[in-house]
Design goal:
Elements: E1 2-6, H1 13-18, H2 22-30, E2 35-39, E3 57-61, E4 64-69, H3 76-81, E5 84-88, H4 91-98, E6 103-107, H5 116-126, E7 131-132, H6 138-144, H7 158-168
Parallel strand pairs: 1-2, 1-5, 2-4, 5-6, 6-7
Antiparallel strand pairs: 3-4
Helix pairs in contact: 2-6
């Protein structure tokens, strides 16, 4: 199986650093994962000085093949290939991943102003669409992970949305 970890455009040093630690990687391996791609952005971590913009680097650790890079123009291919996405809790990323029917673990970034990611993550977790955790608890969550227990996110219904907007604006 294949996992993808993304931090988006904002630094999330602790999440990226955890992706290279044995306590995280060994749990991924025990769950049957053999590869991990890490989109590290501009995060500061032990290997940050080794990766330049536009460059992909690879290493193997704890039996997991790891590829890491800063940014790509699109994450579409990464989402498609992933069996599990581990990510910051940005709304755009969450919707992109859930609409593809992928299992998702989100970690709200506590360094962001007003910790706005926490509210969205908590709500979607309470509805069963994803798992929300902290960097510290991520290995424990991986130990208990049952990807089949995560509900499939409903597909977007453009006509329904348009009707709600039309009603709200008094057009019908």
């Amino acid at each position: 199986m294949h996992a993808f970890l993304s931090v988006g455009s904002t630094r999330f040093d602790t999440l990226v650093s955890s992706a290279f630690q044995e306590r995280f990687l060994s749990r991924l391996q025990r769950k049957g994962f053999h590869s991990l791609v890490v989109q590290c952005g501009n995060s500061a971590f032990d290997l940050a000085d080794t990766v330049e913009d536009g460059e992909k680097l690879k290493l193997t650790k704890c039996g997991i093949e790891i590829e890491y890079w800063k940014f790509k123009p699109s994450l579409e291919e990464e989402y498609r290939k992933a069996d599990l996405v581990i990510s910051h809790a940005g709304s755009g990323t969450i919707l992109d991943v859930l609409r593809r029917g992928k299992a998702m673990i989100v970690i709200p970034n506590p360094t962001l102003l007003d910790n706005h990611q926490e509210e969205l993550a908590s709500t979607l977790q309470s509805m069963g669409y994803l798992i929300s955790t902290t960097v510290e608890d991520l290995p424990v969550v991986l130990d208990a992970l049952d990807m089949t227990s995560i509900k499939t996110f409903p597909s977007f219904e453009g006509a329904r949305f348009a009707k709600i907007v039309d009603e709200a604006l008094g057009f019908i």
